[in-house]
Amino acid sequence: MITEPKLENRSDQHYVAIRTQVSMQELGTGVIPQLHREVFAWLGKQGLAPSGAPFIRYLVINMMEKLDIELGWPIARALSGTDRICAGVLPAGRYASLVYIGPYEGDGLIKANAALLDWGAAHGIAWDTGKTSMATGSARVWSPTSKTRATSQIQPNGKRRWPFGSRIIALSSRGSPGQRVVS
């Protein structure tokens, strides 16, 4: 299930994460829960709890090579990171968002992202992106793009369904060139 995309205003969100580069195939090998657990454990050692659901922040998307991502948790206040754990802030703004409920495996998340991008195109959204050069070619840089995952739902067949939220910040929209808009 994919909800209707919408625009939402969001405040600055502090977070801690682990940054890594992985291929699309590596994402399905357990790296997501492993790194989320590692950051969660680090927060616990600091005597802190996350202020929301875990997320994946996509910094550079190069589907043919590697994705440059951060796997982390939102937190209530700024923290200092370590060599392994990075601290950051997702900027305030208007974001385009939707929710996909389904398994991580398969093409559901890809369809959800396509729905959000298509919706943005139909509504005159210019995404806040750029290009960068990675090992064998160019890739798209997103500022910031994130997916959140809430608690799973167990279906009657025993499989898990996860609600994923997808958010993308935009540079401008119809009638407001240059204004940083999140849709």
Structure notes:
The chain has two helices and twelve strands. The chain is an alpha+beta fold. It has one domain (6-182): Alpha-Beta Barrel (Multidrug-efflux Transporter 1 Regulator Bmrr, Chain A). Strands 1, 2, 3, 4, 5, 6, 7, 8, 9, 10, 11 and 12 form a twelve-stranded antiparallel sheet that branches. A hairpin with a 5-residue loop joins β10 (153-154) and β11.
The helix count comes to 2
> How large is the radius of gyration?
16 Å
Can you give the helix content as a percent range?
A: 10-25%
End-to-end span in angstroms? 20 Å
Low-confidence stretches: 133-140, 143-161, 170-183
Outline of this structure?
The chain is an alpha+beta fold.
Features:
183 residues, Multidrug-efflux Transporter 1 Regulator Bmrr, Chain A, 12 strands
Detail the topology: elements first, then pairings:
Blueprint: E1 6-10, E2 13-22, H1 24-45, E3 55-61, E4 67-75, E5 86-90, E6 93-102, H2 108-122, E7 126-127, E8 129-134, E9 137-149, E10 153-154, E11 160-172, E12 181-182
